[in-house]
Amino acid sequence: MGGPPDGSPSGAALRVRGLVKRYGARTAVDGLDLDVAAGSVTALLGPNGAGKTSTVECCLGLRRPDGGSVEVLGADVLRAAADPDHRAAVGAMLQDGGLPTSARPLRLLRHLARLHAHPRDVDVLAERLGLPAFARTSVRRLSGGQRQRLALAAALVGRPRLLFLDEPTAGLDPAARLVVWDLVREAVAEGAGVLLTTHDLDEAERLAQHVVIVDGGRALATGAPGVLTARSTASLRFTAGPGLDLGPLRRALPEDVVVSEAAPGSYVVSGDVDPQVVAGVTSWCAQRGVMPDALSVGRPSLEEVFLDLTGRSLR
Ligand SMILES: Nc1ncnc2c1ncn2[C@@H]1O[C@H](COP(=O)(O)OP(=O)(O)OP(=O)(O)O)[C@@H](O)[C@H]1O
Q: Among 35, 97, 107, 226, whose CB has the most other CB atoms within 10 angstroms?
């Protein structure tokens, strides 16, 4: 058996061009482009039904695309899926696990490690993910979070050069989340390319160098998290009692400035927010005896950019 494939000459771990996936009359993925560079994380973000899972399944060779191309470590995905060396170089942690239900966690990990040329140290990996606490429990009896930690260990144990992580920290406690993030960063530092699907924008901002926001199977925006947030204009936010009458404030501000109560007691002033607008808001507060709390002016978070683009929240 040869070593793991080195990837394409460009260093791309994954290259997707014009991907189309249809289920009967429904088009789940509609001409999507996607890149994962070696040694980096690309986050695929989108609301429910956006086409993320279909995309990942096409990239893993689990579904045949209806159009476009998918290159995995420099080879066409369907050829790569049929080649054991390529398969060994790709790790995946999927929502429905795919772990054998009668297996015991540590025995399963040791078995998987033996299938790879340069596996991670099973005991160290298991310890970090807290697997020894349920080493004797069969997969079918594990809790959701335990199964997830085992699935991540199984995806990482062979030191994959391309790693698919589908909501890796959903439902994990905060301490386990930090461990998962550390493990992902370590895999990336060793040169792995990671495609991360997540509903957690904080996770995307922390881990990803590149973000693709999808909806309706199409990319609505792509770029570094900082670039995506910098594209949007600054807004002013403050909290105060809910239900303030915003009519007089709207009339006091320029027409292109939008004032809204995004959630009860949480106010957003967006548009061309300049010093005059800030002064207009604070003097309106002063006239009404309103003490604005947590008043800030700044670029929106990735979460707000996402909401603007898709009109939907991720959660
Ligand atoms: N096997 C299937 N047969 C028919 N339609 C499907 C199938 N799988 C997915 N779809 C449809 O394709 C669209 C995209 O689904 P997909 O699961 O790829 O989205 P997603 O972004 O992963 O969603 P979620 O965040 O809810 O997991 C949806 O409209 C879904 O109903």
A: 35
CB-CB contact of 21 with 29 (8 Å): yes
Q: Is the ipTM of this complex over 0.90?
A: yes
List the beta bridge partners of residue 36. 14
Smallest CA-to-CA distance from 96 within 60, 45, 44, 50 is with: 60
Indicate the range of 65-69, 80-84, 302-306 predicted with least confidence: 302-306
C-alpha 303 to ligand 1 mean position (Å):
22
| Lowest-pLDDT choice from 164-168, 250-254, 275-279, 305-309 | 305-309
CATH code assigned at 130: 3.40.50.300
What is the CB < 6 Å shell around ligand 1?
Answer: 23, 26, 28, 46, 48-54
Contact yes or no for 222/57 (Cβ under 8 A):
no
- CATH number for the domain spanning 281: value is 3.30.70
pLDDT in tens, 80-99: 888 888 888 999 998 766 78
C-alpha 244 – ligand 1 centre gap (Å): 41
Q: Give the chain's domain count.
A: 2
Torsion of CA 190, 196, 201, 205, to 10 degrees: 30
In the numeric block, the tokens 């589908």 are attached to 166
